[in-house]
């Protein structure tokens, strides 16, 4: 009897183990550019998403991705690049993912790159000098005036689609430079996303936000990833579980 009981237990244990193996979700091992390290192509064009403070790279994306890397027991390293075209770099094997407050537009899709689910939703806005808030309410009020934006950004696309005839447009590599021109009177407005505009107004109360509106469909920031790195599924799960904590 004891021998038969032991055999039954072994058989049941084997069957139970097999069931667990089938039922358990499989997680593909990451094949990142550097072993046990997530390499990020980063642009500091949009504070507070990413920016430098005393030489240190900080911001909402930095904090969020550090937590993701820690959840996988992986290191995180950043490489600085201009914003324009940064979403192409993972497909060129320059990094495992790009971070810069990037919107997933179909026109930005490229070979070797896949996109995460959105992790933050933004509105399109115009920043102006507060003293002009009575005269300037929407983009329709800008014939003969100059609007700035980061080149090839969502703001660039939105302004070009909506600006009235006679408006002048000026592209920048970095929002901070555009805001400096706005405060110096060399621009009449700077177009940006709400997350960045709110930060600028908080630091420069002489500025005001106008013309806040949503794109259709709503604009969600996402991460372009190198397909070969095999990180997207894990990152999507992390975003789903932690999206409410982004920027906090």
Task: Report on the architecture of this protein.
This is ABC-type amino acid transport substrate-binding protein. Keywords: Signal. It holds the Pfam family SBP_bac_3. The chain has 248 residues and is an alpha/beta fold. It folds into two domains: 112 residues, Periplasmic binding protein-like II (D-Maltodextrin-Binding Protein, domain 2), CATH 3.40.190; 90 residues, Periplasmic binding protein-like II (D-Maltodextrin-Binding Protein, domain 2). 29% of the residues lie in helices and 26% in strands. It has six helices and 15 strands. The chain has a five-stranded mixed sheet with strand order 11-10-12-9-13, with helices on both faces. Strands 4-1-5 form a three-stranded parallel sheet, covered by helices on one side. A three-stranded antiparallel sheet has the order 6-14-8, with no helix packed on it. Strand 10, helix 3 and strand 11 form a beta-alpha-beta unit. The longest helix has 22 residues. The N terminus is likely disordered.
CATH topology of the largest domain: D-Maltodextrin-Binding Protein, domain 2
Structural class: alpha/beta
User: Can you count the beta strands?
Assistant: 15
**Poorly predicted tracts of residues:** 1-27
- Please state the second-level CATH architecture of the largest domain: 3-Layer(aba) Sandwich
Domain count = 2
Strand order of the largest sheet: 11-10-12-9-13
Helix coverage percent: 25-40%
CATH superfamily of the largest domain: Periplasmic binding protein-like II
Q: Strand-and-helix sequence, N→C?
A: HEEEHEEEEEEEHEHEHEEEH
CATH class of the largest domain: Alpha Beta
How would a textbook summarize the main sheet? Answer: 5 strands, mixed
Shape: elongated
* CA-based gyration radius: 23 Å
- The helix count comes to 6
Summed over residues and divided by their number, the pLDDT gives a mean of 91
Distance between the termini: 62 Å
Strand content: 25-35%
Signal peptide: 1-29
Domain Solute-binding protein family 3/N-terminal: 37-248
Pfam families: SBP_bac_3
Protein name: ABC-type amino acid transport substrate-binding protein
């Amino acid at each position: 009897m004891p021998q038969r009981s032991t055999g039954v237990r072994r058989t049941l244990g084997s069957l139970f183990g097999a069931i667990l193996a089938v039922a358990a979700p499989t997680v593909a091992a990451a094949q990142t550019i550097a072993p046990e390290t997530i390499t990020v192509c980063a642009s500091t064009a949009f504070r507070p998403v990413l920016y430098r403070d005393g030489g240190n790279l900080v911001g909402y994306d930095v904090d969020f991705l550090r937590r993701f890397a820690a959840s996988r027991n992986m290191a995180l390293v950043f490489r600085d690049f201009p914003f324009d075209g940064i979403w192409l770099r993972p497909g060129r094997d320059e990094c495992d993912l790009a971070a810069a407050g990037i919107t997933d537009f179909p026109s930005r899709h490229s070979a070797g790159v896949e996109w995460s689910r959105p992790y933050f939703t933004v509105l399109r806005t115009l920043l102006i000098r507060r003293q002009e808030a009575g005269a300037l309410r929407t983009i329709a009020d800008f014939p003969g005036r100059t609007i700035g934006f980061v080149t090839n950004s969502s703001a660039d696309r939105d302004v070009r689609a909506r600006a009235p005839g006679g408006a002048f447009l000026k592209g920048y590599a970095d929002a901070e430079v555009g805001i400096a021109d706005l405060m110096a009177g060399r621009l009449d407005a700077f177009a940006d996303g709400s997350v960045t505009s709110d930060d600028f107004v908080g630091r420069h109360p002489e500025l005001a936000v106008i013309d806040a509106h949503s794109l259709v469909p709503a604009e969600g920031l996402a991460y372009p990833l190198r397909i070969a790195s095999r990180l997207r599924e894990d990152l999507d799960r992390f975003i789903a579980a932690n999206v409410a904590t982004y920027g906090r």
